[in-house]
Amino acid sequence: MVAHDKLLLPASSAAKAVLIRIIGKAQAAKVVKQLPPASRSWATAQGFDGSAGGIVVLPADDGTVGEVLCGAGAAPGDV
């Protein structure tokens, strides 16, 4: 069993949180188009299109993880 308290940061944590976006196929092109240029290029190069199970980790300017895009597919049940 997963210890959820080990997966999530406490509200008082000084650690930086990472944005995780769940994106369906219908929204993927719009979301990718709105990303900053470097992130947009990275997501496009990785072929992110919102397909179920698709994941792309976008780097921040300092080389750490900036955000994560997760594909949800055509419908919520596709994940």
Which structural category fits the helices and strands?
Answer: alpha+beta
What global shape is seen? globular
- Report the total helices: 3
State the end-to-end CA separation.
21 Å
Fraction in helix: 25-40%
Beta percentage is 25-35%
Q: What Rg, in angstroms, do the CA atoms define? A: 14 Å
What are the secondary-structure elements, in order, as H or E?
HEHHEE
Strand order of the largest sheet: 1-3-2
Mind describing the biggest β-sheet? 3 strands, mixed
Low-confidence stretches: none
| Averaged pLDDT | 84
Number of E strands: 3
Spell out the key features of this protein.
three-stranded mixed beta sheet, alpha+beta, single chain
Fold and architecture overview:
There is one protein chain. The protein has a 3-stranded mixed β-sheet with strand order 1-3-2. A hairpin with a 5-residue loop joins strand 2 and strand 3. By secondary structure, the protein is an alpha+beta fold.
Itemize the secondary structure elements and their pairings.
Elements: H1 4-7, E1 19-24, H2 25-34, H3 37-45, E2 55-59, E3 65-73
Parallel strand pairs: 1-3
Antiparallel strand pairs: 2-3
